[in-house]
Amino acid sequence: MSALNGKILLIEDKLDNISHIENMIKEAGYEVFRAAGTPQEALRMTILMLQSTMIIAHDSLSDTILSTAREMNKEISIIMLGTSDETLLLPSIQVGKTAYLKAPFTTSVLKAVIDFISR
């Protein structure tokens, strides 16, 4: 298990297979906290309250997550999930490591990405 103590915030909004993704994360050995992605203010408050060091969410929530991470002034690793063939352009905000994982993916791929960005 990595330096982030095995706790990951999984944001539910727009992830069709949320239970499957949650099970994949648990199978990889991490504890999962789930949070709703909307409304944006509720998501922002959840991120601020939990002070998670890693967030996994649909790429449509990148602006809210990145601005909240900047507000926390804390390094957070972020994995954006999506189905786009286009490159996701994340704003150049230093919040920690970021990754984009295109669906579909396997548990071993998800675990490898989590391990890589949590170093």
Automatic annotation (TrEMBL):
SUPFAM superfamilies tied to this protein: CheY-like
Top-level taxonomic group: Bacteria
InterPro entries associated with the record: CheY-like_superfamily (IPR011006), Sig_transdc_resp-reg_receiver (IPR001789)
Gene3D superfamilies: 3.40.50.2300
GO terms (BP aspect): phosphorelay signal transduction system
Domain Response regulatory per the UniProt entry, residue ranges: 7-118
This protein's name: Response regulatory domain-containing protein
